[in-house]
Amino acid sequence: QVQVLDSGGAVVQDGGSLRLSCVMSGDILSINFMGWYRQAPGKQRELVAGITGDGSVNYADFVKGRFTISRTNTKTTMYLQMSSLQPDDTAVYFCKARTLSWGFTRDYWGQGTQVTVSS
User: Fold this and answer.
1) By C-alpha distance, which of 114, 91, 111 is closest to 3?
2) pLDDT in tens, 47-81
3) Alpha-carbon distance values, 105 to 34, 98, 108 (Å)
4) How far is CA 24 from CA 1, 3, 34, in A?
């Protein structure tokens, strides 16, 4: 079991910056992927950025060069540094941890944190 708690959402102006945090606890050693997702009203949830167990990162094309994903060495906290925010970035942002144990994967989601970019 893994507990996931995301936070840091706020209302920011167009062009502003924000940092989201995700704190994880429990069976940390079984986590092999961490990611940030977002869901805008009326749209499907989409991957924003992810980081694998060995530290490889990937970004959605729409955030490349603007957002940076990182985590602590203990892998208990993950961040999403967002800059040059645009109104289209407005969404609920979710943190996800995926575990691999005995050949089975399981996803654990945070409750979501609202990011609103005002024009």
Assistant:
1) 111
2) 999 999 899 999 999 998 999 999 998 889 999 99
3) 13, 7, 10
4) 10, 6, 10
